[in-house]
Amino acid sequence: MSPADIRALEDRIDRIESQLAIQQLPIRYALAVDARDLDAWTGCFRPDVDMGRHGRGRRVLRAHIEPQLRGFHRSVHQICGHRIEFTGRDTATGAVYCRAEHEVGERWIVMAICYGDEYARVDGEWYFSRRREQHWYAADVTERPQTVDFMGWEGAGEPALPDAFPSWAPFWKETT
Hints:
This protein has helices at residues 3-35, 38-42, 58-69, 168-173, and strands spanning 75-88, 91-104, 107-122, 125-140. Strands 1-2-3-4 form a 4-stranded antiparallel β-sheet, covered by helices on one side. It is 32% helix and 34% strand. The longest helix has 33 residues, at 3-35. The chain is α+β, with helices and mostly antiparallel strands and 176 residues long. The model has no long low-confidence stretch (mean pLDDT 95). It is globular, with a radius of gyration of 19 Å. The chain has one domain (3-173): Nuclear Transport Factor 2, Chain: A (Roll). Residues 15-132 form the SnoaL-like domain. InterPro entries: NTF2-like_dom_sf, SnoaL-like. This is Nuclear transport factor 2 family protein.
């Protein structure tokens, strides 16, 4: 093999190993949230994670998320699909579909979620740089999402999907 062939093979192996490592992040995140393992959960994010006006770092992230996690008792996050697109050797973006269930008092809230992710490799390890949750609906398991205007749990906020997909409005614009 020529040096160029060896380098191409090394690059392909690196890409495969990177994709496998990134694919583990959403399930590690889900398991950590459901187990309320905040160290494992924050460990999915890069050490200097940017929390905007709140500051930077995993301690800031933990302080922000812990009160939210105390807003429901049990939870189950089921990862349903994952798309990854590399934007550089050490960066990527992705979308992760998830069905999440939350015990909120006497209610069992079901959510259909799409996470918009940014990933970065830091010191040889892949982490979330950013994770943005958007959902279609949140409703008690006994309710149809339409009967609660897709907003059956105030803790979930207003659903952004499907309107947030760039192709959504143009598709329906053609409908008479």
